Every structure is written in structure tokens, then in C-alpha cells.
Fold each of these.
Amino acid sequence: MASSKDPDDLYMEDIPGVKEALQNNDTAAAAAKIQENLKQQHNIPLNIAITGESGAGKSTFVNAFRGLCDDEEGAAPTGVTETTSEATPYPHPNYPNVMLWDLPGIGTTKFPAKKYLKLVGFEKFDFFIIISATRFMENDVKLAQEIQKMKKKFYFVHSKVDNDIQAERRKRDFSAERTLKVIRDDCVQRLGGLGFESPQVFLVSSFELHLYDFNLLHQTLDRDLPSKKRDALLFVMPNINPEIIRKKKEAFKRRLYWLATLSAAGAAVPVPGLSIAVDVAVLVGAVTDYVFAFGLDIPSLKRLSDRTGVPYADLCAVIFSPLAAAEITTELLLKVMTQVGRTATLMAAEEASRFIPFIGIPVAMVLSFITTYKVLNAILSELAEDAEKVFEKALV
Ligand SMILES: Nc1nc2c(ncn2[C@@H]2O[C@H](COP(=O)(O)OP(=O)(O)O)[C@@H](O)[C@H]2O)c(=O)[nH]1
Ligand SMILES: [Mg+2]
């Protein structure tokens, strides 16, 4: 971001007209604008194309990215010979606005790159991931060049790197680092020979996304994506390290401001035990979002258990928040909010009051803002901590 401003402050200015509406005491208009904006943020589409030769590991990557086992219902079929020449969309289970497209290998379609891209409908994709399990081929390069011409982004991924490591491990002077460097150099050199000067190549294992370059791939995509699409990608990222979890928390924290303002605008029902009135449906939506992004909903936890072999009960055992591994209902959320609201420290109040951008609003509104901010912030922190504990249990 080319601004020296606090990113939180930038967020505050994001919804035009809200501040004015509140200053004019038009709380209904302010609430409507915020709600509309939150809804839009939630539905930002992201279409990711996965391409590469048959057997490269495209379908396996699509499943791993979505946290699915290869034999699960809704998973892309793997280890099968491609029979279709069309791109197959696979929505993320928790965020159907994010779609992974399993593309046929260009070789299987027998089309030149330009025609192939037209056939799969290249316009709709935000970027392409070109996968190869062996060496990148002429087809891969031609495709990349054509994608570039279409002003789209692409990323080279060398898959099944766990196999490479496994094979090298037998050698006496084995070093994982050195092996990875050799593979990377080889890919780069090969692509150079085919006409691509110093390309970036990511080494990935779909069976072990938390190792190797998958995290680097995310960082690179995050940097290249337009800012409004970054959170969409972030929220579907598997929890491959504590850093991802922290980033998710920060992204949600920026949105807290609007949720708190919404409750300050007060078009809502009162919460017993707390001196606030909130739009409970919106809060249920927000907290469900936290739980989904952290992978703490029951289906996500079950999938994680299936993928890692760590029993579901063991994963649940490290969870603290009553909102994780549970169905989030209005009743449950109100109960948790009341409990958290009573015990949440005042620390967050100061933090929250820093955000209130309009002076002269009624004290009740300020209180409502701060309370909602505090309560949601406490819930968010608890869930992030749970996500970290689950991550540790499952992968460390
Ligand atoms: N060891 C290992 N095998 C993989 C990996 N990705 C895919 N495979 C295997 O490679 C084979 C082909 O994978 P698939 O996803 O069907 O390839 P596609 O034809 O490109 O969709 C399957 O047997 C997968 O299990 C990986 O990261 N590591
Ligand atoms: Mg496939």
C-alpha cells in the first residue's frame, strides 16, 4: 500500500457516506450502507485456474487447497485419465465465492495455447497456476506466454516435491535444502532454455502444504492480487502456519470497526446483560465467518482429522471457545457475548475508542460501539488461539 497511514484508518474511510449519515443522525442510512458493504466484501469472487499436463497433480492440488481428501464427496477425482476438455469448477466448501478450476491438460485437448485458453474461458480467471511434476514442457511455456499476452498472471508450481525429497533421502549426504535448490535451479534453467528468463518456481507437495513453498506462493499471490481480493484468498488459505492464522485475525479485526459502528447505529435488538443493542443476524454472520476462516466449524475439523489422521476428538479437546466445533445460533452467540462481555478486560476499550471517528454522537452510541468492539474482539482472539492450538495438534 503506497500510504504511510495506519491500515486501520484507511479502512475507516472505506465506506462512503457512513460518517456523514451518522453525523446527520440518520442511523438507518448509515446501517444500510455498512450492511451493503459487508455483504459485498463477503461475496467477492476469486477464480483460480489450475492447469498442467495430465498426471501433474492438478486435481490433488485442488483438493488439498480446499482441505479435502481425494476420495471425499465433492473432491476432484485424482489419478484418473482426463476425459473432458472443459474446466471443472470446485468451490471452496466454506467460501463458495472462491472457485478452484481444474483445467484439462493442454496436451489432452490438442489445441494450441490460444485456442485452449479461449476454450476454458480465460477471462474469468484471476490467475493461473501451471503445475508440473517433472520438468516443465514446451506446452507449459507456450501457455504461460499466451496467458501473459492476455494480461493475466500465472505461477509455475513444481508439484510432488515430497517424492523428490523421498528419493534423495536414501543418499548418505542428503540435505533437504540442497535437494530443493537443485530442483529449483533445474526448473529455472529449463524454463530459461524454453524462453523464460529467471522465472519464479514454487516447489509444493499437495500432501504437505505446510512444508516447502506453498506459503511463499500465498505471499506472492497476496502481493499481486488487487487489494479487494486479498482477503478472499486469505480466508480460504489452509492454516499451514501460525502466521496465516494471525493474518486472518488481523483482516477480521479491520472489519470489526464496521460491525461496531453498525451496532452504534443501533437498528437492532438489545442484548440482555450487555448495555447494547445489535443486529444479531449480522453478528452471527461475522462470527460464522471467523469460525469458517479458521477452519473451526465441525465439517472443516472433520476434514482436517481425515487428512491428518489426528482423531476428531483430539482436535476438539484443545478447543476453548464454545463457538468452535458448534453450530452458531443466535441463542449461542448471545450467551457467549454476554459471558465474554462481562469478563473481557477494559484493555480493548481504549483501542476501540481510538477508532471512533465522529465526535458529538450520543454517549449511548459510543458505549454500544465500544462494547460490541470489545466483545467481538475477545471472541475473535479466542477463536484465533483455538485455531493455533488445533494447527499444532494436527500438524506439528
Ligand atoms: N507424492 C505425491 N503425489 C502426488 C502429489 N500430487 C498428486 N500426486 C499423485 O499423482 C497422481 C496424479 O495426480 P492428479 O491430481 O490426478 O493429476 P492431474 O491429472 O494433473 O489431475 C495421483 O496418483 C496423485 O496421488 C503430491 O504432491 N505428492
Ligand atoms: Mg485431474
Note: Residues 1-10 have pLDDT under 50 and may be disordered.
Amino acid sequence: MATLTKLATYLSLFLTLIFLVLISVADGNAQQSSDIVQHEEWISPLASEQHIALKTRTETLQSGDTAGVVLQRLGFSNTEAANIIAVAKPVYALSNIYAGNKIVRQDFEDAIAVTYHIDSTDELHLMFTEKDGWHAEVVPREMHMRTSVARGTIEDNLFYDAAKAGLEDNLTIQLMDMFAWDIDFARDLRKGDSFKVLFEEAFDDEGKRVGYKILAAQFKNRGQLFTGIRYENKKGDIEYYSEEGKNLRKTYLKSPVKFSRISSNFSDSRKHPVLGYTRAHRGIDYAAKSGTPIRAIGDGRISYLGWKSGYGRFIEIRHNNGTHSTAYAHMRAYGKGVSKGSYVKQGQIIGYVGMSGLATGPHLHFEFRTRGVAVNPLSVKHKPADPLPDQEMSAFRVKANSLLREIEFQSKTAKWG
Ligand SMILES: [Zn+2]
């Protein structure tokens, strides 16, 4: 048995080595077109998988298959199959099996293992030894985690430049959501802005991607650096915090326009002068394609919804017991389920960009009022949500430092590649 374990250890080291060589070859190719760098790691929940099976058989469930039939195809007798199903029942009912899923039988020197892939995250493990008979448990499937760093510079379009750097659209959206309280992606992006994103992808043991998330990111907008670190606090909430442990969430979003791949091409902007805040124009304008979603920048109650002369289709929201209010004009249409008096959540779609009322082209006219007086929305400072409690700061700093080091390390590796 000891020899077998040693052999298995050597074999797994050897396989890891081959794997790393393959990855570095793949990376070498990838670096010619982008700055993405990756780091791979297997998370194996089961020590038993270190052993080498003498024989492995896999059956993919066909429609109409029962567990009993498939177990017999895997070489178990009718009685053995019934026994396996009975042992499994307290942890997982094998009457709940789905076509396309797999049952695997592995024969070891002194044991037999049967594995059923329940879904992308869990599997049913059945183990037989002469000494203990059958034993069943549900365990997490082996996951393959890959972390990557993508970094890029804004040349003309965030989605395009992010994709060029190796960030797919869903991760670009996560990046924008993360900094939605600090950066107005619809108005404030400038050529030369830059980003570094450390993200993690999870793959199941068949190579299918089952999840992805941003672990940390930095965004430099008009010379100002914003940092976000993913952290699960003691209450179990997952939030993004600044390097100083401040929550990135704030009372109000920076932008009422939901920036997307489509709205990022501001091709209509020339048809309408995009006005900033002045005494004559007590709001700011967002030129965007007709139909671009408009979102409530904060929680509140709709105090006005309807046609309002030159403003066209108009919505006003009262926030924070009326201390603040926000106004949205020239809409093409109102959001679903939004009406006067209804309560809206931060980020909820309240309408769509249009040119109703007096407008020369599709745009959103947006106003922010404090105690009824219009102020420049761009100059209002907003209060962050709960910061990390002091007693969690040291654990947070350790995590933050290691993630930021990984961004720096992988960025440097990219430069040398
Ligand atoms: Zn305006």
C-alpha cells in the first residue's frame, strides 16, 4: 500500500509538470495577442483520488435508464445494485438521476468506488471495502481553479478594449458594477484610462466552466486610481472594499445610465449638444442610443411620473425622506412596473433613453436636488455603505495585500512574456 501511495505521488507530480508545461505553451501563444496571464491549481477534495484505479469504467445515462440498470451495465449484480441504491438513499436518492450525467466505477486493489455526478458542484461517492462494506457520501466535485490577470488601456471603447485584454463581456460588466458608485462609465471614461483585473474561473473535472468572479481590480479613471477587493466579512456578506476597507457601495450610483456594449458607442452624440451643469442648464445630459436603460441611482419613492412639458416623459424620485431627489427626462418609455408612488431600488431600471419633449436627439437629462435645490450631480459626495469593522481589518489587509501582490506579480510576468 505504501509503495502504491508513493507511486501515485510521483505520477501526480509528473502529470502536474506536463500540465504546467502545456499551460505555459498555451500562455506563450496567448500573450502575443493580449496581456492575460494565468495561474492554475487543482483543488482535490478527496485524498482517495491519489490512488490509482486498476480499472475505470464510465457509463453515461441514457433517457429511460434507472440507476439499477446502469449499475448492472457497470458489472454489479442485481442484488449488489439494489444494495448500493439502498446505501446511497439517506444521502442521495438514486431515483433522481438525469440522462447525460455519468456514473463511474473504479476498481482499486482493495476497494471499489462508484461516483455519480449530481450537478456541476456535487457528486455522490460510494466506496466499498471488504472490512466496512458500502459507504455513501455527497462531496464537492473536484474543481479546477484558474486565476488570470487582464490589463488594458482605454483606446476607444471599454468593452472592446477589455475584450482585447482578455476580459469577456460578463466580467467587464462585473468590473463596471464593482465601480458603479465611483466611476460614471457613460460620461467619464477617457482615452488613456487603464485597468488591471484579477479574476478567478472554476472548472469542473470535465473542463466545463462552472463559475467566474473578480477577486480584485484597479481602475485608473482620469488620473484617479480606484481599487476594489472582494472580501467575505464575518457576517458572510461578500462585498468589494477599497484598500482602506471602505465599502465600495454608496448611497447613490455615479451614473443613471446603464452602460452596456450597445450604449458604449455614442454614435448619436453629435445630434445633441451634451450639456454639463450650468446656471441655465441645471442638470447634466447623457447622449445615448434611444432605448438605453436608465436606472434609479438610489433607493427611493417615485414622486412624479408623467409628461412634463419640455421634459417630455419625466420621472422624479425622492430619496432619504426627501432630503434628496433625482429627476430623469426625455424618456422614450417608462420601466416595467414603475408607477407614481412606487418604491424603487438602487440600480432598478425606471425607463429608457429617448427624445420626448424638447430634445434635438436621444439623451437623458438628469438632475440632482438637495432640499429642492438643483446641484451639480458630478460634485455631490456620497456616503459609503458600512465599512469593515475594526476587528476585521487585520484579516482584510492580509487578503488585500496578497491579491494586490498577485495583480502586480502577474502583470510583471506579462511584461516579460
Ligand atoms: Zn439637459
Note: Residues 144-250+386-416 form a domain with the Nuclear Transport Factor 2; Chain: A, fold (CATH 3.10.450.350).
